[in-house]
Design a protein that fits this description.
Helices cover 31% and strands 14% of the residues. The chain has 223 residues and is of the alpha/beta class. It has a single domain, classed as Rossmann fold (3-Layer(aba) Sandwich). Strand 7 and strand 8 form a beta hairpin.
Length: 223
């Protein structure tokens, strides 16, 4: 049985009191698709323990189903610390979105090292939406950045501006990825878009989470 590690944020409020956290829908949709395909899932976050979410995000029916699922709910609210994770146990790592990711995952050395080790041993690295922020500082064994020269996508600057959060986030993700040497591309706002570059799979926005999960299953089955 394949195992996938979901790397989620521990951040909830910034200094101004703006709430962000994890966008649970981008956890729930891939979770159920992977479980359906007999893939085991664990969670890791910078601080471990319960994962912060906005109350508004809990109204979605798919999120409600996820949180009503005993095993999913227990794992989600008892995320592991990076020091409790052995990268060798996992075939892939997935970074879901939510604005909170931009505040902590790029600076979490432990999770970045786990992602690098998974990729170095032939595993898959995935991200959707703001989850792409978790890829920014992932380095490989040779010291290079994982995303350098890779084709990928993530939440676009235009999408950030469309929801009025371009001044609230610590950086614009599209810009940051390009500055790190990634070959970024996107489509129109809110449209499904997934980019597969070998063992790096990325989705642009919430509409892309299921397709990302399908591509991950495909790669894992090929392996």
């Amino acid at each position: 049985m394949s195992k996938v590690l979901f790397a989620v944020t521990s951040h909830f409020k910034d200094d101004s009191g703006w709430e962000s956290g994890c966008y649970v829908l981008e956890v729930a949709v891939p979770y159920f698709h992977l479980i359906k395909n007999d893939i085991e899932i664990d969670f890791v976050s910078p601080k471990g323990g319960p994962v912060p979410v906005k109350k508004l995000d809990l109204d979605d029916p798919k999120v409600k189903s996820f949180l009503k699922n005993k095993e999913a709910n227990e794992k989600f609210h008892a995320s592991k610390l990076p020091t409790e994770v052995n990268a060798a146990d996992y075939d892939a790592i997935y970074f879901p979105g939510g604005h909170g990711v931009a505040f902590d995952l790029p600076y979490c050395e432990g999770i970045a090292k786990i992602a690098g080790k998974i990729y170095d041993k032939g595993g898959v690295v995935c991200a959707v939406c703001h989850g792409g922020a978790g890829l920014l500082n992932v380095k490989l064994a040779d010291g290079s950045f994982l995303i350098e020269g890779k084709n990928l996508t993530a939440f676009s600057n235009k999408e950030e501006e469309a929801i009025g959060t371009e001044k609230k986030v610590p950086f614009l993700l599209e810009t940051a990825l390009i500055e790190k040497g990634a070959k970024y591309s996107c489509v129109a706002n809110w449209q499904e878009y997934v980019v597969v570059d070998g063992r790096l799979i990325t989705g642009q926005n919430p509409s892309s989470d299921l397709e990302m999960a399908k591509e991950l299953v495909k790669v894992l089955k090929e392996k």
